[in-house]
Design goal:
about 375 residues; Rossmann fold; 2 domains; 8-stranded mixed β-sheet; 14 strands
């Protein structure tokens, strides 16, 4: 099949930096059996083309992005007909995909992969913050031939807005993250915690740090690795110092996938503190390596609790601290969560994701 994928970015020509691993994995899997062309709306400021993960990448650049993407899709379609056009994320990507689908007479698909359906006014995040955003999302989703999303909470949000969707998680790449059985902790050892996310308002690291401060007051011995690009200019590091956690936390900054895996493998527990997630992939990567998750009730954390993860209310640092302590004090519980999480991540891996998308494409064509 000839597939057009519309993405906002995450497909840098380096293949290591400014990428979205789940997106690159999906592109690579689809490219094994299909002719995949990726339209990136803003990977670089200037327009350009390159090959990546078996696909051709067309970067539109910062000028006339929507019109440029439509023109490019029409031009490529004239050279050889596309079978489907799909947007990963709704928003502008989805609007372009639906418009192109109507113009070219082919099915259009939307994969809701982020905050398209929410309005978090306190941090200025979400696709439904303004009436224009709500109108855009309504028109886009109504015009799509099919809608998918990674987790049940997003499917429920779509249903509440009147849209039927299929659950289709962006699975972990088991070639990069081969499965590993959970490892029992040494009795009396300091707990090794990990948090993998960009430092930003949506990931809500203040809740994470306050939970860690509460955990420390219980006498629990732990070390925390925080991995992710800092978009808050040191705000989280300063809060950690004020809470007396400077000696407990190591801020690693951005790590490539190759650098990240041994850090995750060394952990006993993944911690998620987000206000909103469609996934997250970091939880699935940890699960593949035998590391379970405790986190706020978002995305896969909500789906997997209580058998493969433990979830607490969003923003509730006290409950988060309590859940972390519960798992660290009960090694049999931690291992049960880890084994079930591993089972689920392995079952819905990247090959599963690509196969499901291909089946959906064929059903529409």
């Amino acid at each position: 099949m000839r597939i057009a994928l519309i993405v906002p970015g995450g497909v840098d020509r380096s293949g290591e930096y400014r990428i979205i691993p789940a997106l690159l994995t999906l592109i690579g899997r689809l490219s094994r059996h299909n002719d995949v062309h990726v339209i990136a709306l803003g990977q670089e400021a200037q327009a350009g083309e390159w090959d990546l993960a078996g696909a051709r990448i067309y970067n539109i650049g910062s000028r006339h992005t929507r019109l440029g993407a439509i023109r490019l899709l029409r031009s490529l379609h004239r050279l050889k007909r596309f079978d489907v056009v799909q947007a990963i994320w709704s928003g502008t990507s989805g609007l372009i995909a639906v418009t192109a689908g109507k113009l070219l007479g082919i099915p259009s698909l939307i994969h809701v992969a982020g905050g398209e359906l929410v309005a978090l006014h306190e941090i200025g995040y979400g696709g439904r913050l303004t009436w224009r955003g709500r109108l855009r999302e309504a028109l886009t989703l109504r015009g799509a031939s099919a809608i998918t999303a990674a987790s049940a909470p997003i499917i429920d949000s779509l249903k509440a807005l009147g849209f039927a969707a299929q659950r289709l998680p962006l699975g972990v790449d088991l070639e990069v993250w081969p499965t590993r059985e959970p490892v029992r902790r040494h009795p009396g050892s300091s707990a090794r915690l990990i948090h993998v996310a960009s430092l930003n308002g949506v990931k809500d690291q203040p809740t994470l740090l306050r939970a860690l401060a509460a955990l420390e007051k219980t006498g629990t011995s732990f070390e925390m690795e925080i991995v992710g690009e800092d978009t808050l200019h040191g705000e989280i590091q300063r809060l950690a110092a004020r809470l007396g956690l400077a000696d407990r936390i190591r801020f690693r900054g951005f790590l490539t996938v190759r650098q990240l895996r041994p850090v995750v493998e060394a952990a006993d527990l993944m911690i998620i503190s987000s206000r909103h997630e469609a996934g997250p992939l970091a939880m699935l990567e940890a699960a593949a390596t035998g590391v379970p998750t405790v986190g706020t009730a978002v995305g896969h954390v909500t789906e997997w609790t209580p058998d493969a993860a433990l979830a607490v209310p969003v923003g509730d640092w006290g409950s988060l601290a309590g859940a972390i302590r519960q798992v660290l004090n009960d090694e049999d519980l931690r291992l049960r969560l880890a084994r079930e999480a591993l089972k689920r991540a392995a079952a819905e891996n990247a090959d599963y994701t690509a196969r499901r998308f291909e089946e959906l494409y064929r059903s529409l064509v």
